[in-house]
Amino acid sequence: MATASLRIDLDAIAANWRDLDALSAPGCETGAVVKADSYGLGAARVARRLAQAGARKFFVAAAEEGAAVRQALGEGPEIFVFSGHMAGDTDMIADLALIPMLNSLDQVTRHFETLPGAPFGVQLDTGMNRLGMEAGEWEAAAPIMLGAGPRVLMSHLACADAPDDPMNAAQLAEFRRMTDGLGVARSLSATGGILLGRDYHFDITRPGIGLYGGAPHAAARPVVRLSLPVVQCREVAAGETVGYSCGFTARRDSLIATVAAGYADGLSRALSGKATLYAGATPCPLVGRVSMDLITVDVTDLGEAPQDLDILCPEQGVDALAAVAGTIGYEILTALGARYQRHYVGGGA
Ligand SMILES: *Cc1c(COP(=O)(O)O)cnc(C)c1O
Questions:
Q1: Residue 349 pLDDT grade (very low, low, confident, very high; cuts 50, 70, 90)
Q2: 73-84 burial, b if ≥16 CB within 10 A, otherwise e?
Q3: What are the N6-(pyridoxal phosphate)lysine sites (modified residues) in this protein (predicted)?
Q4: Which residues lie closer than 8 Å to 180 by C-beta, 6 or more apart?
């Protein structure tokens, strides 16, 4: 088979959720962010496993994603939509009992006019300038919105992965100023904010990347193993070249494996000539250009042709591979290719 195998450890995801839950302040509920198909790992399977572990609040970016999660979870768990109530979302929000995080007066008007009495939350901007109502808008709308009983007031930190950044304390102070004393549940922290400490936890946390094995949750268990099949192996004499634009020239007589995954599968061209694959614990350098469906790997030092090579494994996690590509673990995960065969291991889902 010339499609790669992506092994997803659902028990590791559940264990990461429990670890973040244990870090949280008493009385604080740990939610789970399952947007972008659970960071590329499969929203239905992941959400079911997390529900089994005890998660009751799920977060998605768009209503369509919420529909897939509702189908997987059935009635009961709350599903919050970060992008709020967009035109065209009304039926989905109503039929699937999604909870939009209202971001603007336009969205407030749409929600109250089309679905009076339906649940909602409010997203507040505390300085990131991306989503949410600004202080002035909130002051004007708060009396009406509070009267309608929002489920949660939330905001998002811009710099939580940098604990010493003064932006964190500034956003915390602004969030308190906008929400203290209102008697509504509050949520400020994603993975990075949970690690900043209990002042940042409030009533509900929203971890994503920390569930899926990525920084800044340094203690996270690895969740994915990506094994790529070797399609063929050839001897390349010293001085010969490999791949597009003759991107690699063999300095010695070499054994080169041609491996079935490329940039169409989320292996960025920025990995060309830089990444490392693993045969067990033995590192093998990627040589030449990443092409659409294939990469080439120097396996000379193995002395034999391997059946497959790993690019995500205990030896090289998502953040290590991301560093080589000049990106972040989030992008490595969410780019994981649609052609990979996803194999789930672990309990009950
Ligand atoms: C993506 C996202 C999260 C989860 O962030 P992680 O850094 O992956 O934990 C939480 N809240 C909002 C608003 C988000 O967009």
A1: very low
A2: beeebbbbbbbb
A3: 35
A4: none
Ligand 1 pocket, Cβ-based, cut-off 6 angstroms: 33, 35, 82, 156, 190-192, 206-210
- Annotated ligand binding at 269? The verdict is no
Fold of 224-345: Lyase, Ornithine Decarboxylase; Chain A, domain 1 (2.40.37)
Residue 39 falls in the annotated catalytic set:
no
Q: Within 10 Å of residue 48's Cβ, how many Cβ atoms?
A: 18
What are 245-286's pLDDT values in tens digits?
A: 999 999 999 999 999 999 999 999 999 999 999 999 999 999
Domain 10-212: state its class.
Answer: alpha beta
The tokens describing 110, both together, are 């749409």
Contact criterion met (CB below 8 Å) for 275 and 324: yes
Dihedral angle over CA of 59, 186, 220, 311, nearest 10: 40
Note if 57 is an active site residue. no
User: Using H for helix, E for strand and C for coil, what is the string for 166-185?
Assistant: HHHHHHHHHHHHHHCCCCCC
According to DSSP, residue 68 is labeled H
Tell me the whole-structure pTM to 2 decimals: 0.96
Report the candidate in 173, 160, 85, 84 with the shortest Cα–Cα distance to residue 126. Answer: 173
Interacting residues of 217 by C-beta distance below 8 A, sequence separation 6+: 16, 19, 20, 191, 195, 207, 209, 210
